[in-house]
Amino acid sequence: TQADIDAGQVSNQATGTFDFQGTTYTTLSDADATNTIPDEPTITLIQSNVVDDYWVNKILVYPSVATDYIYVVSDELKIDKIKIVNILGQTQVEFLHHNSGVYQVSNLMSGTYFLVIKTDKGSIVKKMIKL
Questions:
Q1: Do the Cβ atoms of 92 and 117 come closer than 8 Å?
Q2: CB-neighbour burial class of residue 74 (10 A; exposed 0-12, middle 13-18, buried 19+)
Q3: Tag placement on the chain: N or C end, fewer CB within 10 Å?
Q4: How many CB atoms lie within 10 A of CB 116?
Q5: Strand partners, 69
Q6: Contact 110, 92 (CB under 8 A)
Q7: Considering the entire predicted model, what is its pTM?
Q8: What is the 3-state secondary structure (H, E, C) of the chain?
Q9: Residues 72, 92: contact at Cβ < 8 Å?
Q10: pLDDT tens-digit profile of 13-32?
């Protein structure tokens, strides 16, 4: 829907119901079996204006496994904003681009994140692991 596009994500959760030996059980779907948040919905990011593979390779993010800082640089694209999103689709931090390309991530918890990088050619999504 347009509201989902405006929000930048879709949240989806199913309800399952079954009978066992005369008792009815109901449960909610979970994003994965190993998480610490029970019965949370699956959140899918919606990317509009995503650029083609040629431009994706013009953005460098290093290190891919970060502790305190990441570097996001490009010789050919103008980077406007960087949003760091967790695997549930929740924005953790947003940065306006600055010339050094250095971004502090020490305040993030350990885990996998997605960087949504807004450029003059569209949005690019890169993955980062925070130790």
A1: no
A2: buried
A3: N
A4: 20
A5: 104
A6: no
A7: 0.61
A8: CHHHHHHCEEEECCEEEEEECCEEEEEECCCCCCCCCCCCCEEEECCCCECCHHHHCCCEEECCEECCEEEEECCCCCEEEEEEEECCCCEEEEEECCCCCEEECCCCCCEEEEEEEEECCEEEEEEEEEC
A9: no
A10: 777 787 888 888 877 766 55
CB 44 within 8 A of CB 125: no
CA distances from 105 to 39, 41, 90, 116, 118 (A): 28, 26, 15, 14, 18
> Token digits for 21?
């030996």
- 55-68: buried (b, 16+ CB within 10 Å) or exposed (e) per residue? bbebbebeeeebee
In angstroms, rounded to a whole number, what is the distance separating the alpha carbons of residues 91 and 121?
A: 22
Note the pLDDT tens digit of each residue in 101-128: 999 999 999 999 999 999 888 888 899 9
